[in-house]
Write a structure and sequence with these properties.
The complex is a heterodimer of chains A (about 375) and B (about 300). With about 375 residues, chain A is α+β, with helices and mostly antiparallel strands. Chain A has two domains: about 5-220, Rossmann fold; about 240-365, OB fold (Dihydrolipoamide Acetyltransferase, E2P). Chain A has helices at about 40-50, 90-100, 105-120, 135-150, 165-185, 195-200, 220-225, 230-235, 360-365, and strands spanning about 5-15, 15-25, 30-35, 55-60, 65, 75-80, 155-160, 185-190, 205-210, 210-215, 240-250, 255, 260-265, 270-280, 285, 290-300, 305-310, 315-320, 330-335, 345, 350. In chain A, the strands form five sheets. A six-stranded mixed beta sheet of chain A has the order 6-7-8-3-9-10, sandwiched between helices. Chain A has a five-stranded antiparallel beta sheet with strand order 15-19-16-17-18, with no helix packed on it. In chain A, strand 4 (about 55-60) and strand 5 (about 65) form a beta hairpin. In chain A, helix 2 crosses helix 3, helix 2 (about 90-100) packs parallel to helix 4 (about 135-150) and helix 3 (about 105-120) packs across helix 4. Chain A starts with a strand and ends with a helix. By secondary structure, chain B is mainly alpha-helical. Chain B folds into two domains: about 40-100, no CATH class; about 105-300, MetI-like (MetI-like fold). In chain B, about 65% of the residues lie in helices and about 5% in strands. Chain B is built from 14 helices and two strands, in the order H-H-H-E-H-H-E-H-H-H-H-H-H-H-H-H. Chain B has helices spanning about 10-40, 40-45, 60-65, 75-80, 85-90, 100-135, 140-150, 160-170, 175-200, 200-210, 215-245, 245-250, 260-265, 275-300, and strands spanning about 65-70, 95-100. In chain B, helix 10 (about 200-210) packs antiparallel against helix 11 (about 215-245). Chain B is globular. The chains are: A alpha+beta (about 375), B mainly alpha (about 300).
């Protein structure tokens, strides 16, 4: 098992830069998520780590060894592809044993090892079947079997659940996480699904346009996004971003949104000009005493909660409130934002302004 | 009563079926003609109207494979026929003095046809794989250049090739003909195979690279089995070309490496117009390509990647 350290990794395809100077560290045994929209460079990053692409520059340390220029077969890692990539001309047993055969393991040992792995994954009964007729879930299990059979230093997974339907996905996600916890292997998992990332990951890297936007544990990323992109990408519905023009001075504990004074965590840095106030929907409360007001334009019932959309002077705001609260469309209500959860962004850089709230998170991000 | 889009009406089916049968009859007719003529006697072969029912004879085949000479009654009596072939010859007042050159020519065809097919497919597969998977500088231009070698009839360059072959000592050699047919076939095989290899997802090789195999191992253990269908159909196309090629064979070969196509017409000249012998030669000439195609047919029809990758 291994620690993986990425330093200033860069990949150019001709004039297009897929990944630019990424740096982060994956600790031994972590379940690590590479999250971002399609085309953000997350898969390219993973493929460079696996040895399927050569980096343009930068370093990849696997347990301290720089492996950036080594071919995949010398890195001792396993890869689970989105489309499974099971060898179509071999049956299940041969697929799983293929990585062992390349190591020259004896036939008896291969057999024993494959049986053991099949037991872990619950696929003993399909070992002699061709891979062509298997269901999506079984193919995924065979692909996992091929990955774990060799006890590699790390597992790399490229959207392994992307091809499964929603219901089954949930179950495989749980199985995967359970498998990880049981084996304790370092796992790097690429996904564009922020819910999947939050649900399964110990740590998340959020990427956009080839740049690492933020790196940390899911809760920090959710609560204290480092950039407006992260604020907008994570959460469903995402963080409300109220754009305003004004002043956010160092040491202040409020900003002026029009005439309303909004309390924020004490700012440790200052900015002025185009700014944005970020607040998660669950931290927006409907309060008739609130000085900031909005008109209800829509409600969305979600069982235990409801999402209320309000139109304000600085754009739409979504609030997640208890579903038993009666809200009329067209009604004008006061809004209160939970002060200790608010972020202020500088729109010229898209970055969050350092405050008492996010200083612990942004310091290492 | 109405019919769905996918299920045609009985009348349409009947019409389509008739059309297919008619087409098959028209295309198979010459083939049938040649095969039956091979078993006719010389007089029956030129009978008008053509005879449909006739007494089959192996005369044509005997004439094809043997060299005969006319002898006097006395000599004929002195050498009583022993084999059925000698009996057939004797019935026309001839004795067999040795084998004809057809066997040799046929063997030349086999060596040159299969040799050049093998080379075209091996080189074509490697080139197609490189073009499909690697960043080759000027890839599109190179592919176009390869195709452009087929933009004129190959025979248009016969004279320069003739001179080159003479200088290099390749005239009338097996190697020369194999190289020539390979060169002509290569553009077809590169283009065909690139199409097939492009269809094979890269993930298979990448999985093999991760599983501890080298690039070359991944190529022959994972890509080749997947490309079997494409390789088989490419091989058939290459063989059909080099097997049937006539013009270069006439120009560049004579005594040593002559293939069957330029040889068969010369049979006519030996002892009158021996159509049954020509037909027998053509029939035997058909067999290898037919057998080869039938052997590889299951690869042509079977999509072995079905279901292994979800698209």
């Amino acid at each position: 098992m291994a620690q993986i350290r990425i330093e200033n990794l860069r990949k150019d395809f001709g004039s297009f830069t897929a990944v630019q100077s990424s740096s982060f560290t994956i600790e031994d045994g972590e379940f690590f998520m590479l999250l971002g929209p399609s085309g953000c460079g997350k898969t390219t990053t993973l493929r460079m780590m696996a040895g399927l692409e050569l980096p343009t520059s930068g370093h990849i340390y696997l347990d301290g060894d720089d492996v950036a220029d080594r071919p995949a077969r010398q890195r001792d890692i396993a890869f689970v592809f989105q489309m499974y990539a099971l060898y179509p001309h071999m049956n299940v047993r041969r697929n799983i044993s293929y990585p062992l055969i390349s190591q020259g393991m004896s036939r008896g040992d291969v057999r024993r090892k494959v049986d053991e792995v099949a037991g872990i994954l619950g696929i003993e009964d399909i070992l002699s079947k061709p891979v062509g007729g298997l269901s999506g879930g079984d193919r995924q299990r065979v692909a996992l079997g091929r990955a774990i059979v060799r006890d590699p230093k790390a597992f790399f997974m490229d959207e392994p659940l992307g091809a499964l339907d929603a219901e089954f996905r949930e179950r495989m996600a749980e199985e995967l996480r359970a498998l990880h916890d049981r084996m304790g292997a370092t796992t790097v998992y690429v996904t564009h699904d922020q819910l999947e990332a939050m649900q399964m990951g110990d740590k998340i890297v959020v990427m956009n346009h080839g740049v690492v936007e933020q790196f940390g544990v899911p809760q920090d990323i959710y609560d204290w996004p480092a950039t407006m992109f992260v604020a907008n990408f994570i959460g469903s519905p995402p963080m409300n971003l109220l754009e305003f023009h004004g002043m956010a001075g160092r040491g202040t504990d409020h900003v002026m949104l029009g005439d309303a004074k909004i309390a924020v965590p004490t700012l440790l840095d200052g900015a002025q000009g185009d700014l944005a106030l970020g607040v998660r929907p669950e931290h927006v409360h409907l309060d008739d005493d609130g000085s900031y007001r909005g008109r209800v334009t829509a409600t969305e019932y979600l069982g235990t909660t409801q999402i209320v959309t309000l139109s304000t002077a600085h754009g739409d705001v979504k609030a997640r409130i208890a579903s038993d609260k009666k809200v009329e469309i067209g009604e004008v209500v006061g809004l209160r934002f939970n002060p200790s959860t608010v972020s202020v962004f500088d729109r010229s850089t898209s970055r969050a302004i350092l405050s008492d709230g996010n200083k612990g998170v942004l310091a290492h991000g | 009563m109405s019919y769905s889009i996918t299920d045609p009406s009985p009348r349409t089916k009947w019409f389509a079926g008739t059309l297919v049968i008619l087409y098959a009859l028209i295309t198979l007719m010459p083939l049938l003609w040649i095969i039956t003529t091979g078993f006719k006697s010389q007089s029956e072969a030129i009978a008008y109207p053509p005879s449909v029912l006739f007494e089959p004879t192996l005369e044509g085949y005997v004439n094809l494979f043997t060299t005969q000479t006319r002898v006097s009654e006395a000599d004929l009596a002195a050498n009583p026929p022993e084999t059925f072939a000698e009996e057939i010859a004797a019935s026309k007042g001839m004795i067999i003095v040795g084998p004809s050159r057809f066997g040799e020519r046929f063997l030349n065809s086999v060596i040159i046809g299969f040799g050049s097919t093998f080379l075209s497919v091996v080189l074509g597969t490697l080139a197609a794989y490189a073009f499909s998977r690697y960043r080759v500088p000027l890839k599109d231009d190179l592919m176009f250049f390869i195709l452009s070698t087929r933009m004129m009839p190959p025979i248009a360059v016969a004279i320069p090739i003739f001179l080159m072959f003479r200088t290099l000592g390749l005239s009338d050699t097996h190697l020369g003909m194999i190289l020539l047919y390979t060169a002509v076939n290569l553009s077809l095989s590169v283009w065909l195979l690139k199409g097939f290899i492009d269809e094979i997802p890269r993930e298979y090789e990448e999985a093999a690279l991760i599983d501890g195999y080298t690039r070359f191992q991944a190529f022959y253990k994972v890509v080749l089995p997947q490309a079997a269908t494409g390789i088989a159909s490419t091989a058939i196309f290459c063989l059909i070309f080099s097997w049937n090629e006539y013009a270069f064979a006439v120009l560049l070969t004579s005594g040593n490496a002559q293939t069957a196509p330029p040889f068969i017409p010369t049979i006519i000249g030996v002892g009158g117009q021996d159509w049954p012998a020509v037909a027998a030669g053509a029939t035997i000439f058909l067999v290898p390509v037919m057998v080869f195609t039938i052997l590889l047919r299951k690869h042509l029809l079977r999509g072995i990647t079905f279901g292994a990758v979800r698209k």
